């Protein structure tokens, strides 16, 4: 099976037109959704492609998208909103702006989307944004999501925000300005990242929590971004990345043939057979009980999971592969088997990618197609 | 009975009308209690990115929410609006914060946002701003009742939105209003819970009863919600935070003094038993194993980190064996847990969660991996064979009837994790180093037991061959 490019382009074009009301509960992350739409179309080579008979995205539409993103930049330049839903418009004032704040992760996605659309970022209020960023960093080095009433840092302290903060600094750094000045405390950030690494090797959301692929990606990606920022900590970030044997092992451990949820009729006590449930080596959760360990046929289908003993999910192909790639160890994974998973199991009939082999394509708007 | 507003010909809903179930019916615009509010519509110009087909109910509620936020309104109707909005979009990142503001205002009997002194309600603030009418670390019964009511509402919302983060943050914010645990060390998420803020007097009997009753109902709630989704990451994060916030009520005490070791008693502790139960229900619940590490060992590591000056980071504790150097490890507890884990591994030798937990134990207790050689070899084939297939048909003869039957028996390698550990053990064991066997383990993994990770096993092999 191959990537059905046309179907995917149609799917993303549909998403760009309108998202159904089931996405209402994702309204607050429209910037995030928007970034994935733009990025997917870009990966499918839809922008500025002279080989296309007719443009998929009109020039005006692209300009409109850029304008919409800029309309989400809050008036004092302290970040971008996640959605126009908080915009208080002409009633916004210093007394109520806490309800319409810049949002850290969505600011990163706004900048990334602008870059993907080939905008020159000239309308970004760089100075204000870079002075807002450190205000979201806590004493322990972690970042929050928004500044709430009384300028309290709100939102969890998980590694995703740390990654977005580093991403913003990376995008907005001006190579012409010498010497580079970090907008926040990079050393503390590295301290925080390291404190999130578990005995199993993977990184968790916060210290002593359960390791998770998405968060491990964020840890590794943040360190990588710090090496590129040429700040005071880039050497420490580099050394840290060069010493991730246990993380690499943990990431590779995430490859799994368990692609399906447990089927109710199967009974562990009776499951005497060591044969995989399907002839491509894939199996159900139940087969953990006597997980086959003998040599498996060459046409294996392997996905990635996010944590120990969980089933494969499309998005983890990205998180795990991405982290492994940054660590220079992607070649140690069985990529052919992962390709088979993506193209045979989760590529959806209408385009897009699903979360698992029996799901609808909605999940693809998150990450999978990307 | 519907009424008509005198200034227009709009037919209004009756004053007691509740938000409708219909996704398209107007509500706030035609409700008598909302006529004074000028909604702020959302305007997205044409060609917007990621447009969503909102239901009219949602668009309307959002327009009214913006209007109230613009005025910082604190009122019962504002509270009701946040509840309505949350039912349609619980991931809205300011509505929950706004709700908390409203609650604090209402609980103080204030309807003006400007007058809300959040510090009066947050009794656990730094002592430098202590209010004179609030006792050290006590909680007024009225506030406690209010918190309980909000928690009850939040419980139900949590069941309907298992994947939502903001719900747990709100819960966290509510619980932060409760008195400190006198034994509580600092946790990153509760800076108020720092040693300098620790109350100097014991709490009153009334406060202790409130805390006990709160913990009991939280434990019940957590077990109910985890039964719906046993590995929910947000729930486990909250559970871990709650344990650190109320350690004397939720955590077994850790002692490095051998005569005070909890090794013989810890299994009867409530939180340990709760985790034991979850593990018995599903041996492969990685979240339960992760929490087990936290309650028995991780919490102690964190406490140590926070007691140090100059500051250190968590990673240093284990890398530099700081707990050992300070004589602060409960070796008997580590030993007891190693035995427990071995027992669980034997039930399901291919379970990654148990093997990783064992890694954590060895690290915390500074126990050498080579001490597990004999244990790991239990999972190999006859005479330490590394290649035998898992199942063998064995012909058995009934001694009485002389009838033979064939039975499938497990006699070969039963755990790729054991083989992996042995490759490390054989190359590290000072007394019985066996590099050749270490390499054979890796080859067996690459070719037979774990070919998915062949790339990794070959890499490890090349590293051994370099030496």
TrEMBL record, chain A:
Record GO cellular component, one term: CAAX-protein geranylgeranyltransferase complex
EC annotation from Swiss-Prot or TrEMBL: 2.5.1.59
Enzyme class: transferase
UniProt-annotated stretches for the region Disordered: 261-287
Keyword Zinc set for record: yes
Domain called Prenyltransferase alpha-alpha toroid: residue spans: 3-361
Biased composition (Acidic residues): 264-277
GO molecular function, one term: metal ion binding
Highest taxon above the source species: Eukaryota
Cofactors, names only: Zn(2+)
Keywords linked to the UniProt accession: Metal-binding, Prenyltransferase, Repeat, Transferase, Zinc
Similarity comment: family membership: Belongs to the protein prenyltransferase subunit beta family.
Protein name, entry field: Geranylgeranyl transferase type-1 subunit beta
Organism annotation: Lithohypha guttulata
Protein encoded by which gene: CDC43
UniProtKB/TrEMBL annotation, chain B:
EC identifiers of the protein: 2.5.1.58, 2.5.1.59
Gene source species: Lithohypha guttulata
A single MF term (Gene Ontology): protein farnesyltransferase activity
UniProt xrefs under Pfam families: PPTA (PF01239)
Keywords: Magnesium, Prenyltransferase, Repeat, Transferase
Name of the protein in its database record: Protein farnesyltransferase/geranylgeranyltransferase type-1 subunit alpha
Stretches the record annotates as Disordered: 1-20, 182-205
Composition bias type Low complexity, residue spans: 1-15
Cofactor(s) needed: Mg(2+)
SUPFAM superfamilies: Protein prenylyltransferase
Matches recorded under PROSITE patterns: PFTA
GO cellular component: CAAX-protein geranylgeranyltransferase complex; protein farnesyltransferase complex
Family of the protein in this entry: Belongs to the protein prenyltransferase subunit alpha family.
Sequence ranges of Polar residues compositional bias: 190-205
Top EC class of this enzyme: transferase
